[in-house]
């Protein structure tokens, strides 16, 4: 984040149960909502964190989205403008997933984005996304894991009237990261680890 998002101007909130974390050069907010040692479902923790914030929009990034090149902040500002002007939109998924073409409609309304169909298997997706905070809260159920949120939540949200868009080209992506597979089943995913070390110089 320090290296690849030098013009970060948004609050940086780390959603934890009870842990606090600081790092030089980053203004990290942790709320420590739950008692020490308590493990709560992913959705319950996210709901509690979102309820502590007052922002109209949130960018949801998971902890293993390691940024590999500078963030295109100008794109994020454009997508915020889209949300400002279109109240019916819940989110813009900011990662291009090429094998989901049959679940999207390119209606030409927003350059670089397609509308997700109501029967899309990942109507809710935890790839990098910018959300209208109040609508993200409507999609969450506090007992669900992150995988249940994507699965059951996608079925549940088919009846909601708001719309979900997703990037249909890599040029629309403000974040460059390796799909969140840096860690798999508690271990580093070696092919990505070696590629990222070579690309970024990180060890």
Describe what is shown at a glance:
The chain is globular and about 45 Å long. The protein has helices at 42-52, 73-85, 133-139, 146-156, 190-200; strands at 12-13, 28-29, 57-60, 89-93, 104-105, 113-116, 129-132, 163-167, 183-184, 187-188.
- Report the radius of gyration as a whole number of Å: 17 Å
Unreliable stretches (pLDDT < 50, length at least 5) are none
Order of helices and strands: EEHEHEEEEHHEEEH
The main sheet orders its strands as 3-7-4-8-6-5
Count of helices?
A: 5
- SS-based structural class? alpha+beta
User: Quick one: biggest sheet?
Assistant: 6 strands, mixed
Mean pLDDT: 93
Principal-axis shape: globular
Fraction in beta strands: 15-25%
DSSP strand tally: 10
N/C terminus separation: 16 Å
Approximate helicity band: 25-40%
Q: Helices, strands, pairings?
A:
Elements (H helix, E strand, L loop, with lengths): L11 E2 L14 E2 L12 H11 L4 E4 L12 H13 L3 E5 L10 E2 L7 E4 L12 E4 H7 L6 H11 L6 E5 L15 E2 L2 E2 L1 H11 L3
Commentary on this structure:
The protein has 203 residues and is an alpha+beta fold. 26% of the residues lie in helices and 16% in strands. It has 5 helices and 10 strands; from the N terminus they run ββαβαββββααβββα. Strands 3-7-4-8-6-5 form a 6-stranded mixed β-sheet. Strands 1-2 form a two-stranded parallel ribbon. Strands 9-10 form a two-stranded antiparallel ribbon. β5 and β6 (113-116) form a beta hairpin. The mean pLDDT is 93.
């Amino acid at each position: 984040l320090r290296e690849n998002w030098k013009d970060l101007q948004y609050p940086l909130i780390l959603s934890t149960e009870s842990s606090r974390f600081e790092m030089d050069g980053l203004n990290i907010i942790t709320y420590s909502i739950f008692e020490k040692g308590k493990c709560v479902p992913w959705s319950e923790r996210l709901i509690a964190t979102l309820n502590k914030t007052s922002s109209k929009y949130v960018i949801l990034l998971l902890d293993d989205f390691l940024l590999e090149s500078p963030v295109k902040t100008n794109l994020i500002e454009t997508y915020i403008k889209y949300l400002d002007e279109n109240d019916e939109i819940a989110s813009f998924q900011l990662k291009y997933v090429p094998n989901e073409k049959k679940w999207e409609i390119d209606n030409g309304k927003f350059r670089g984005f397609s509308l997700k169909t109501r029967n899309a298997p990942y109507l809710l997706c935890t790839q990098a996304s910018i959300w209208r905070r109040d609508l993200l809260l409507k999609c969450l159920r506090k007992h669900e894991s992150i995988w249940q949120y994507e699965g059951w939540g996608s079925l549940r949200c088919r009846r909601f009237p708001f719309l979900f868009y997703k990037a249909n080209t890599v040029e629309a992506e403000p974040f460059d990261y390796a799909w969140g597979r840096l860690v798999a089943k508690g271990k580093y995913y070696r092919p990505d680890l070696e590629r990222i070390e070579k690309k970024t110089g990180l060890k």
